[in-house]
Structure formats: C-alpha cells, structure tokens
Prior knowledge:
Pfam families: FtsK_SpoIIIE (PF01580). 34% of the residues lie in helices and 22% in strands. It is α+β, with helices and mostly antiparallel strands and 699 residues long. The strands form five sheets. Strands 9, 10, 11, 12, 13, 14, 15, 16, 17, 18 and 19 form an eleven-stranded mixed beta sheet that branches.
Amino acid sequence: MAQRDPLKDFLVELFGPAPGTRNGRTGQPTPEPAVGTYRTFAPVAVAAAALAFYAPQLADTAITDTVDQARQLITTVHGYRWPLGALAAGWSVLDIVRWRGHRQRLALEAQLRQTTRHLPVKVTVAFPPGIGALRSAKIRLPRGAIIRPKEMDEFTTAVRGAAARTGTHTYTVRHHAHRDLILITRTPIEPDTRSPRHKALQTALSAGTIFKEPNVTVHSCDEDGIETGYKITFTPSLNSGARGFQAKVDEALAALAGDHKSGRTWATAWTPAEGYLMMYLRAPLPTRVDHPLALVDENLRHLPYATGAANLSLYWDVSTKSNKPHCLIVGPTGGGKTSVIRTLLTEASRRGIPFLGVDPKMIELDGLEGYPGCAAIVYDAVRSAMLVRALHAEMMARNHYVHVKKIEPSQLPLLIAVLDEFFILSGKWQRLAKDEDEEIRAQVKQLDPLGAWADLAVLARSAGIRLLLGVQRPDASLFGSSSGNARDNFGTRISLGNLSQDGALMMWGDAHVGREVDTSIPGRGVVTALDGSPVDAQMWWTPNVDPHPNKWNQLSDEEKAIVHGLAPIESPTFEFFSTELREFVEAERALARRAREFGDAPEPSVLTDFPTDHDTVDEVADAIPASAVTEGMVILLDDDNGHPVPVTVDTVAVVRDKDTGVVLETVMSINAGERVKTTVHFDATEVVMLPEPDTVLTA
C-alpha cells in the first residue's frame, strides 16, 4: 500500500484535484460533488505585500544604478507597502473564513451521503460560518429524494455529534420533503441552574419506567430561595391511580429528595386523572402532644386522639355513617396504648357518649372507674363473659327497637365497649370452659362469650354500639375462625411501637408499614388516616384520671390541670334498651362501691355457690395465640392437678388452610424431662399463657 503524502493531501484540499481525476478503484470519473473546489487567492496578495516591503533590498541587489525607471517603479511600489499589507492580511482572514465554511460544507455532505446515501445538490452554510461550531446550514437535495425517519435520525445525531463539540449550543435539523430541503439551525443551550435535588429527581424519573414522559418543575421556594415544592407531570396510566403504587412512589421520591435543612419531611398530593403530583414540605411530627383542653373537632361524633403531619388531627369516627366504626389498638407495654384508650374515652365523655370496659390485667382501665360517662369497668373473667353476653342482648334489643319504632339507627344513643388485653381475656374464657367444675363449664358454654363477641363485631354498628379492642400484638387468628373474620370490621387501627413483618401485613396489608417507628419517642405510631391509608402520628398524652391519692399525687400540676380541664360539665346519660345490660351494670356498680368501702372486692358467686380458685390465672401477665408461639418459648400449661406450670416448647407446627392460609390447628412438642416429650394440640381460637409479661414482644 502506498504511503499518503500529507503535503499533497493538503494541497489537493486547498486547490482542488486536477481536472479529469478518476476514481482510484473503479477508474470511473468521480461524481460531481455539491461542494466545489476550494480556491484561494491569498498567496497572491501576500506575495505582493512582501514584494512591496522588501522592494529596496531587491532593488539594491538586482537592479543597477543606471536603470532609473525601474528604481522609480520599485520606489512607488514600496510606498504602497502598508495598504498592500492590510489587503494581504484581510484577504488571508477572508480565505481562512471561506476555508472554514468549506470544511463545514464538506463535513455535511459526507454525513448526508453516509447516513442517507443521497448526494446533495448544494450545501450552504451561514457566513461567517463560525469558528468554533456551525451556525446554520441549508442543504438542497435532489428532486424527489426520499429520506427515511431512521436515516434522518442518524443524520441528526451525526450533525449534533460533530458540530456541537463546545457544549454551549444544540442543533435542530428539519427535513422539508416538499421542498427537497434540509435546514440546520443552532440555538444556545440554557445554563442548567437546577439544584442538585431537582436534577436527582428528574434524572431518576427519566431513567426509570415509573412514569411516561415525566417532567419535574419547581413549584415553590422559601425566602432564602431554597426549593420547598415540586410539580411532577406525567402521562396518566392505570398504575398512577393505584394507592399501592402511589405509596411506593412516595417513599422513593422522599428518599431521592433527602432531608431538608428545615427539618420538615416530604409529602405528596396526587392528581392522577390530570397527570401530575405535588411534592411539598410538611411540618415534622411533634415529639409530645398533651391532650388539648379545647374541642379540636366540633363534630361530636369524631373522637380525636393523635396529631399527624402538618398538625392534622386524626380521629375515630363513631357516627352511624362511618365506614370505620370499631377501633383496634395494638401496642406493647409502655408503648402508650393505655394513654390512647384514656384519650378516646375522655373525648367520648366530653361529647356525651358513655362507655364501659373490661380490663383483665386490672391495671389499664382501673383509673377510669367512676369517671363521668363510665358505666362500669369489669376485671373478673366470669363477669366479663356475662358483660359480653349482656352487650349482645343490648344489641338485639336496640335492633328490635329500631324495627318496631321505624326510626333511623342514627337516632340511637351511642355506647362504647372496651375490651383491653383481648388475648388474656380469651385465654381466661377458654380455661373456664375446661374448668373442673361442671356447672362453670356449662354456664360458660351457655354464655359463649367468643361467639357473642364475634356477633357484636359484625352487627353492633347499626345498633349504635362501638367496640374498642386493645391487644399487645396483632395476629391473623385474632378473633378465631368462629368469628367470621370480625377483624375486618375494625377499620380504625392504631399500632404503637415496631411491628413484625407478619404483624404489619395483618394490620396494614403491607409488610413495611409500622416497622420503622421511632420507639425513643413515647406515643409514636401508625394510625388510619381519614382516607383509610396508614400514616405516622404522635398520640396525645392523657394522664391517669384516677382521683385516688396514690395515683393523683404522682401527677404534676400541668397533668392535674389537663385532668380537670377534660372533665365534662355534665356527665353522659345511660340509656339501656335491655334488662340484661341494665341489671348487669347495676350489679357491677354495687360491687365497685363495696370494694371502695371495704378495700377489697369479694369474689362474685353468680355461677355457683362454691368458691373457685382462679388466683393463678389472674396473676398471669400476658397471653398470645397458640399459633404465635415459637420454638424455645416458655409457656404455662396445666399439670395433672390443674395448676399452671412453665414448660419449654421444643417444636411448633402450625396447620393452615391451603387455600386461605387461615390457622386450623397448632401442634406443640413439649420437653417434659428425662427424654419424654408431650404433644399438645390447640385449635385455631386457643391462646396460651406466658409466665412473664411481653415475652414475645421484647424478644
């Protein structure tokens, strides 16, 4: 292969090829190019100027003194040396500019031929063409030339890649097919003044597949010019209207935006039908909120209990029209569950709504006994079973009243029934059903408290009875298979502390919600928002309202002021529609009065004249569903004499329905010592007792 001669190539480019040049491969004449041969005349002007400047020296060396006429001519030329120099310089600059334009035209011609296989008729660039980059160009195509879209895209990419090297301009290439013309124009690139947060949001959305054609714009800024809000537009899709999709996008956007220096957190407001969402800053959750003395919600059927983002008050809607009539509170000891219950019940009392409750631990609700609006607080397992049955009779009587009087259910007075520590209560009922006393077993079977409770959870809404359930941990077998999935009727839900993955799924339908709560802040948790979605919230602090000196003297002056301020001016009235509930409340109040007078409450002997020993049951600190037991856990089981003893669980096997996943049976292997193992079977509704409080929760 012959070596190329750089000087020859430069001269050919500068002065053009010799006439009649043929193609080196085919021997055929080269097609006539659209860009003609570049001709330069600057060397002539430069030579003339050089001759004018060096004329005297030339005259001294090449011309004799006798030739006066030649000397005079040289002298005259030398007198025009500066104009000739300026002409040579200007001509040289002009030729350089022409040469630059020639190079740009050659490049455009080559790019067009390579991408579209068309030889342009004429290529014109703007004059002056621009030293650093092409300014504009016009390419005339052969008549009827067809350029496919893909070819046009390739040509556009080639133009932008070759001409936009400075990075300060962008090029627009338009093909006017009806005119057989291609126009290239240059526009300056606006400097990117976006903030790093703005760039991160736009880059992430553009690179992903979450939205189609996303665009991020600044919506608002604070006084210092810091961005506080963004508007994100997109093409609406089926996903953009789904609540689960929106929740995941919200989490991703908040992570991309990062922490704001003001300490506020990012929130979103979706308008999927119009194809946009707003990102804005909201005030952070407070670390403590004392129970407000003023009615923050004038609706007497809204019971506020927490503060959410942007100081939004969250409430439990107990009205007849509510689609979340019953409330479920989940929280470990010390998480603030008792304070939330006190908040809800004191708010109910302020609004004229009476309540009654069950406290199997005898420490959670005892301070509410005797409070305005409190009908009774029951502690005994037998009396609790009777209360649930009496509530069932009250529900049936109320429904009968509505049917006979032809009134709307909303005209019925409201009543709140509280069952705290439901697992412990359920365990006590199950132990009573297996009691060695035949009369007790028969009476508990007749009362059927679990069945009555399940009916209440499903039917109490229309009767004006609202249920408030407190448990230490959520579980799929919360109400058992015989309850008809009553858990779904508890639309208002509150979780305090961190949930397990299964607990988060049970409470919120999402394995990630409620698992990253800041437990260093008392009263922090996740609650049901007004639209039904889970949101972070700070529960209100309501001190113990027990007037007993041992409790009252432990309160600060500020807490005492809160208790005094919450007390209603007029105590709510009780309206009973059934004889069973009225008689039960009267009897329970009589027992409470006697307990206050004598300092001790006698064991009620309603079911039998023979006293029974349930002390060991009352001393149990906690209970959990049998299906929630794990290997190595210590539980209480009855020995041959009926006394509970601690045993260690060796293995656990939970049998579930293969279609629904509902627990059918739990089989445990217990290590009884001396290499003897005992197998114990539990049905879906049974619970087991723990020897220490919160063994599972603190594990």
